[in-house]
Amino acid sequence: MAYRNKTYIAFDGDNDMHYYRLMTAWQANDGFSLNFHNAHDLNTARDSSQEESIKRQLRERFANSKLLVVLIGANTKYLTKFVKWELEVGLRLGLPIIGVNLNGSRQMDDRCPATIRDQLVAYTSFNHNIIEYAMDNWPTDFQNLRSAGMTGARFYNDDVYRRLGL
């Protein structure tokens, strides 16, 4: 079994790649403390034209993941080929999921993909500080809430955002 220390990031590769790239830049910059092991760095699909080849590579990434972050943009809820599949795999594996709203919303809104709408998912806005906070805290909170039988959307209140300077 693989050691699970990676963060899997799902996103709309056609429209939201710049947000993903910004997160990886935050991670690489010494001025930011965002620290994650990106599952997308593990391997690349050799035949990117074949859906099954891509999914096979993505399954390998999931095998090393302890957390799933989904960047939720304007079109994310309409993506059924890969993002929906990635969310379904994350749920099946019992991974904590953080929904990061690219529109500034701090909680679940109408852009949320139906696959995770009723699931135990933490939602944040797209900002380094709150994403880092969620990545540090949500996995433990998720396990505790799940053990207690809790479901549904979660979000951080305004006090948390204020403490983080947001």
TrEMBL record:
Domain of life: Bacteria
SUPFAM superfamilies: Hypothetical protein MTH538
InterPro entries: ThsB__TIR-like_domain, ThsB_TIR-like_sf
Thoeris protein ThsB TIR-like domain mapped to chain residues: 8-106
Gene3D superfamilies the record matches: 3.40.50.11200
Short name of one Pfam family: ThsB_TIR
Protein name: TIR-like protein DUF1863
Species this chain originates from: Roseateles toxinivorans
Lineage, highest ranks first: Bacteria, Pseudomonadati, Pseudomonadota, Betaproteobacteria, Burkholderiales
